[in-house]
Specification:
135 residues, three-stranded antiparallel beta sheet, mainly beta, Immunoglobulin-like, four-stranded antiparallel beta sheet, elongated
C-alpha cells in the first residue's frame, strides 16, 4: 500500500507540474475605418517555468506559437520567444506578459496557441479557441 501511495503522489506531482501556467485573454477591436483586429494577452506564471542563470541573475525564456485558421487554411501564424524580467531572487520568480495584435478580416476563426519552456521542452501548454466570429 505504501508503494502504491508513493507512485500515486509521483504521478499527480508530474501531472500538475508538467505544464506551464498561462493565462490567456483576447479582445476584438475595429480601427477607425472598421477593419477588425484581434489583440491577445498572455500572462505566464513565473513559478511554472525554469529560470536559468544569465549575467549574474536568473531569467526564463518561452517560445510562443500562434496559428489563426479559417477552416483548415492558416490565415496568420507567428512563432517567437518571450523573455521574463531578470531576477536575483529565485524564491520570488516574477510572472511576465506578452501581447500581440493580428489584423484579420471578418469571419469565423480558430485560434491555436502553443507555449513551450525553452529551458525544459517537456513543459508545454496548448490552447485552442474555435468559431470566434469577428464582425
Amino acid at each position: 500500500m505504501r508503494h502504491f501511495l508513493i507512485i500515486f503522489f509521483f504521478l499527480i506531482y508530474s501531472t500538475v507540474f508538467a505544464n506551464i501556467t498561462v493565462y490567456f485573454n483576447y479582445g476584438i477591436f475595429s480601427t477607425g475605418n472598421s477593419k477588425p483586429y484581434l489583440e491577445t494577452y498572455l500572462t505566464i506564471a513565473g513559478n511554472s517555468v525554469k529560470f536559468k542563470p544569465v549575467d549574474g541573475s536568473y531569467q526564463a525564456s518561452i517560445n510562443v506559437s500562434w496559428k489563426i485558421l479559417k477552416g483548415t487554411e492558416i490565415v496568420k501564424a507567428s512563432n517567437y520567444n518571450v523573455l521574463s524580467p531578470k531576477t536575483s531572487d529565485t524564491l520570488r520568480l516574477p510572472s511576465f506578459i506578452d501581447s500581440q495584435r493580428f489584423s484579420i478580416e471578418n469571419g469565423q476563426y480558430t485560434l491555436e496557441l502553443v507555449v513551450i519552456d525553452n529551458a525544459n521542452s517537456d513543459k508545454k501548454t496548448t490552447h485552442s479557441e474555435k468559431n470566434k466570429c469577428l464582425n
